[in-house]
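thought: fold this chain, then report.
action: predict
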Amino acid sequence: MALCSIFCPRIPLRFRPKPVSSFLSKPQFSVSYRIYSSLQSTTSSTKDELGTISIGFLGLGIMGSPMAQNLIKAGCDVTVWNRTKSKCDPLVGLGAKYKSSPEEVTATCDLTFAMLADPESAIDVACGKNGAISGISSGKGYVDVSTVDAASSMLISKRIKDTGALFLEAPVSGSKKPAEDGQLIFLTAGDKLLYDKAAPFLDIMGKSRFYLGEVGNGAAMKLVVNMIMGSMMASFAEGILLSQKVGLDPNVLVEVVSQGAINAPMYSLKGPSMIKSVYPTAFPLKHQQKDMRLALGLAESVSQSTPIAAAANELYKVAKSYGLSDEDFSAVIEALKATRSQEA
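observation:
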């Protein structure tokens, strides 16, 4: 795998810079290797304090826009940035402020969230020209909720922490609808102090959060989860097509699956539209294939065999070659249809 050569082993967080702002003014915490989870919602007393911490949000795509919107609706002081400025306009209309670069956002905000499409974008927004590190400083926090590989997350973490700021990776499990409903799952790792400070805002955007220890663990967990999801969708697509070919009603298949031990919400959600060959985008296929690729790189780095995921990844690559990159990842079924027609 091309990614294997850049995948870095886990490294401990050795340094804890002392914060100078009121945002991160408590004594330092050492990294805990226990796993923390939370299903608790933000208390009313905490909500009253949300407006006192200025929040930045970088990246307003399918996921970032509803996440930022939920923060604004909760009464947070939010400043936004996106490469395509027009995507900021609806949020500015809801009360957000706008800045023209990531540097300006981190310079004016206590805590900045970043939701970017891929590792390259995440690194560029954090470390590139007029990037987040150019404006961030000691006592501030940077929370990257993008899905990237561990090596990229470690690189961003180091560059952020070199400024004296704190870093938390917090990739999310969930797609467009959970983002809109504030039902995401955050898989966090990094500075425990920042995790505690960011918790009320994570609770606005999500239904649960897990603290997984050192940077890299959150990224790895997300890749494993998405590898499983991508493989499940490919297998589900095979089942739909097989049921049709042997004369069964695929709609009944969806009902049967949805009531049995193998039920997953995405089956009943995606199945009906897949049968109609309609793929409204909640999670773009190109992002699913990117996550499969990164997961396979992760597996290769530790010599773990993943033949099922590897086969599924090939299907997503075929689907991309048919111009389905921006369709929902359930459009992977089209790759199987093409294979079937070629065999016929």
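thought: worth noting. The beta strands are 36-38, 54-58, 77-81, 97-98, 111-114, 141-144, 166-169, 172-173, 184-190, 206-211.
final: tokens above.
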